[in-house]
Design a protein that fits this description.
Keywords: mRNA transport, Nuclear pore complex, Nucleus, Protein transport, Translocation, Transport. This protein has 16 helices and 29 strands. By secondary structure, it is α+β, with helices and mostly antiparallel strands. Among the domains are: 64 residues; 74 residues. The longest helix is centred in the C-terminal third of the chain and has 44 residues. It starts with a helix and ends in a 5-residue tail after the last helix. The C terminus is likely disordered.
């Protein structure tokens, strides 16, 4: 690599006076270097010893602000302020070095507003779909079909965006859901998504493995929902219907792959598929980052999508790593219709005001209160409606929880947040490169952040568990302020190198800075930091236990013994190796068991809907308050009925008194017959010709019972008899009634 750096320094390609307001660098397959500045594009051959070069002048009025190479490395997009120049990179004639380069090119635009962000669509089967975000619209161009008419165009307001996005980025190209997910970041820091981002006449390029994984993840999520919620909740649920549509979307692609017309002997071979059209719409937000942030897609070399949100201010730089660790879903339902409340307007009681007495039509003796039966029927109807409403409300709450559970798979997980203070002024330059690497540059500092190792461990250990997110950082030795950079990998040397374009116009190739590394003896032993008390009382996570297994199960130990018998030493070695092997297997079992317990505990907390693990269930609180209100209403109703009975009795007595005193109001025949019955009853109670009256008999019996009190009967029996006697006694007001 040192020879390459020396030859590049001596090459005349970098001595050309190329300058502009902004500078960009890009490397194609580690064979060609492209330098764009102002309106000039410089292409340098890195494979030849002389490093031939070609110069392409765009002319007025173009001014290149950034460059982007597509996934197949055959198209280069030169992004200007209101236009984009597409250059074909096949067969660059480096033979006549230094001569003007006239490549095959075409121009997209002029756009009516400034270009904000661009991205190549990773799911395009031809790798020719360029998505362009302007200040007021989102557009996509299929460069093979047309260079003037977009295949998709929609204003941001029609997509449902309340704010104009600051940037766009796609998910992982190795995942079908990730390659179809377009993320948008708003100025307020909200990250939204369009999934799937397809349109009519769009052809997906995906492998059999990616489609099978998409179908398997969707089916697994559907099975989880069916096991978690009852059929009454799932039936007709809009979010569950969206999952079924997503499954049909994947099965439609899977049926095309299994067709005999398509050769899919290689599961990694990308084939051309026709998707079911889904109207693109913005959903979210799925993450919240700092205001004014922009997002950039990270190529993790796995099916896990990762975004880095960066915010550059005058004094600091904020970075947030966002990962889509769950399978993406197409659910767009955001509302569940509430159950209708019971309508009591037609079932109100028709009671009389203050229960006033009204004169009967057929005489007092034939008065019948027919409202009691009607009120009981109405009350039963009200109770039935309230019961049905309560059940419908419980189903509604379960549907809301089901929708939230499905939408939780759309959330982006914040893996890490970092904030750095700027030691020198200058804007932040950031770039994403294959294998999970990110380059950060400010003034005279360049740092490479590598997160590929963590994503590899995440893919291997999921779902048993994984360690906390970490990155590997490498600094590069530079001497002058930088204007642009690009990562360069050499097949013969695994060490990463960076092409740097300085503000003074120099282009150099630099390697990582050599720094002192700590010795292996200084590394802390994780097993020593774990005490026995911590192990037994609080337990250990799967990551802590896994870190204790540093040695492989096939390693052997050497033993010492005072005996010199070879057979004893061999037997001791075999026994020790056997014990160690079993101990290692037991440790692995403990790790797996501990991880499963952690996952099950989280599921239990989610199923129980516990808040902070110690508070009561919200559902129980709502039910208890509802039942308490119903009981209070029943008590109030019972009191009202008792009061109404007392009022009716008083009205009857008042009617008797008024009928007796009133001489002008004649009594009906029924009332006269009732009065005769009352007089007969009075004569029977007060006196009788045959013997003692009923009143005298009751008095004699009461005297007799008092004489035997406490002698032959228990206290409870005497109380019962006295109560019976009280029941036999009549109201004195009836004795005074007479017939006039």
């Amino acid at each position: 690599m040192a020879s390459l750096a020396e030859s590049l320094a001596q090459s005349s390609a970098f001595k050309l006076p190329v300058s502009g307001a902004s500078t960009s660098l890009a490397v194609k397959e580690n064979e060609q270097l492209f330098l764009a500045s102002g309106r000039t594009l410089l292409a340098v051959d890195l494979t030849s010893a002389a490093h031939s070069y070609k110069v392409f002048d765009l002319g007025h009025p173009y001014n290149i602000e950034s460059i982007h190479i597509n996934n197949s490395q055959d198209l280069l997009a030169l992004v200007c302020k209101k236009s984009i120049v597409i250059v074909f990179l096949r067969r660059i004639p480096f033979g006549d070095s230094g001569q003007p380069w006239r490549p095959l090119k075409f121009v997209l635009g002029e756009f009516d507003t400034n270009i904000v962000s661009v991205a190549w669509h990773p799911a395009s089967c031809s790798n020719s779909e360029l998505v362009v975000l302007t200040e007021n619209a989102l557009q996509s161009f299929d460069l093979i079909i047309s260079t003037t008419k977009p295949t998709f165009r929609s204003t941001l307001s029609n997509l449902g965006m309340r704010e104009n996005p600051t940037s766009i980025a796609f998910g992982s190209p190795l995942s079908l859901s990730g390659s179809l997910s377009l993320y948008l970041c708003s100025p307020s820091g909200e990250v939204h998504s369009i999934f799937p981002f397809i349109y009519p006449n769009f052809y997906i390029g995906a492998s059999k493995r990616a489609v099978d994984l998409f179908v398997a993840e969707t089916q697994e999520l559907l099975d989880t929902v069916e096991q978690k919620y009852p059929p009454r909740v799932i039936a007709g649920h809009p979010s569950n219907n969206d999952l079924l549509n997503q499954l049909n979307f994947g099965l439609h692609l899977q049926n095309q792959i299994e067709s005999p017309l398509i050769d899919c002997s290689d599961p990694l071979k990308v084939v051309r598929l026709i998707p079911t059209y889904v109207v693109p719409i913005v959903t979210g937000s799925f993450a919240q980052v700092s205001k004014g942030s922009k997002i950039l897609s990270v190529d993790t070399n796995s099916t896990t999508s990762c975004l880095v949100a960066f915010n550059d201010t005058d004094t600091s730089v904020e970075l947030a790593y966002l990962g889509h660790l769950c399978p993406q879903v197409m659910s767009r339902a955001r509302d569940i219709p509430r159950p209708d409340a019971p309508n009591d307007a037609g079932l109100k009681k028709r009671g009389r005001e203050k229960h006033e007495y009204s004169r009967p039509k057929k005489g007092f003796g034939f008065v019948v209160d027919d409202d009691d039966d009607e009120e009981s029927v109405e009350e039963n109807q009200i109770a039935t409606q309230n019961n049905e409403y309560s059940k419908s409300w419980e189903i509604y709450e379960l549907k809301i929880k089901c929708m939230e559970f499905i939408h939780s798979h759309q959330k982006l997980t914040t893996l890490s947040c970092e904030k750095y203070k700027k030691s020198s002024s200058g804007p932040l330059m950031i770039g994403s490169y294959p294998h999970g690497r990110i380059l950060l540059g400010i003034n005279k500092k360049i740092q490479m952040v590598d997160c590929s190792h963590w994503f590899e461990e995440f893919q291997d250990n999921f779902p048993l568990g994984f360690t906390e997110f970490y990155t590997t950082k490498t600094n590069f030795a530079i001497e002058k302020p930088i204007a642009a950079f690009a990562l360069f990998d050499n097949a013969d040397d695994p060490t990463p190198y960076v092409f740097i374009r300085s503000n003074s116009g120099e282009t150099v190739l630099v390697g990582p800075r050599v720094e002192g590394k700590p010795s292996s003896n200084d590394k802390p032993d994780p097993s020593k930091a774990i005490s026995t008390k911590l192990l037994h009382e609080t337990g250990l996570s799967g990551a802590d236990l896994r870190s204790m297994l540093r040695q492989s199960p096939s390693a052997t130990f050497s033993f010492t013994s005072k005996t010199r018998n070879t057979e004893d030493l061999v037997a001791l070695t075999k026994i020790t190796n056997s014990i160690r092997s079993h101990s290692h297997q037991l440790s692995k079992f403990i790790i797996a068991l501990n991880s499963k317990i952690e996952v099950q505990q989280k599921r239990n907390l989610l199923n129980g809907n516990l808040v902070h693990g110690g508070q009561k269930l919200e559902e129980f609180n709502e039910r208890s308050s509802m039942y308490k209100e119903r009981i209070d209403k029943l008590f109030e109703r019972q009191k009202g009925l008792l009061k109404r009975g007392d009022d009716i009795e008083k009205d009857i007595l008042n009617r008797f008194e008024s009928s007796k005193k009133s001489t002008s109001l004649p009594l009906s025949q029924a009332e006269r017959s009732w009065m005769r019955e009352l007089n007969d009853l009075r004569e029977t109670v007060v006196s009788t010709k045959e013997g003692e009256s009923l009143q005298e008999r009751v008095q004699n019996l009461s005297y007799l019972l008092e004489s035997f009190k406490g002698a032959q009967q228990a206290a409870d029996e005497s109380n019962d008899l006295s109560d019976d006697m009280k029941k036999l006694s009549l109201n004195n007001s009836l004795v005074n009634k007479g017939y006039n």
